[in-house]
Amino acid sequence: MKFWLAVPVFLSFTATTLYAQTAPAKQQPAAPATTPAAPAKIDPAKEADIRKLLDLVGTKALAAQSIESMTKSIKPVLTNSLPPGAYREKLVDLFFAKFSSKTNLQHLLDLAVPIYDKHFSHQEIRSLIEFYQTPLGQKTIATLPVLMAELQDEGRKWGEALGRESMQEVLAEHPDLLEAMTAAQRAAVPPNQ
User: Fold this and answer.
1) 91-116 tens-digit pLDDT
2) Which residues are CB-contacts of 77 (< 8 A; sequence separation ≥ 6)?
3) 3-state secondary structure of 128
4) What percent of the chain has a predicted confidence (pLDDT) above 70?
5) 3-state SS of the chain: helix, strand, coil percent to 5?
6) What backbone phi and psi angles, to 5 degrees, belong to 31?
């Protein structure tokens, strides 16, 4: 994977993880493609309740946690997407430092408001607030990040095992490919090693 292709992957993982840790939106049918209209003004009372909900469920902290987690997991991908050299680690570290300095979590919350407005009625927002203020709602808020982390870890392990098994089966079924891969590996190793 090229470095410039890995950056959008990092950003996509961040957004996906954040989405997975917040309340799911109702499915809406896809609208026909049109020229983007000016965003509709959100009712101030509904906007206040949306911001209250985002604060109640800890969206800002979840976003920060997601960005930190994705940074750790995507850093090796970015590093390996660049040609080897002494510059690589410094470049990746500087990239993440720059990315971090530009991260504005309040802006992310501001982006979330119209999305919640689009997918939830004001009454639904109020109902979510009521739920998240209950003991079960508070447990859900506390448990979801841990639950998502465990699910992601188990999914990663499952995917790695499935990938290994699939590769072993393909190589067993196609010994010519195994031979070609082995030859390529030998050719890639410098003679002094």
Assistant:
1) 999 999 998 898 889 998 999 999 99
2) 1, 6, 9, 10
3) helix
4) 78
5) 75, 0, 25
6) -85, 150
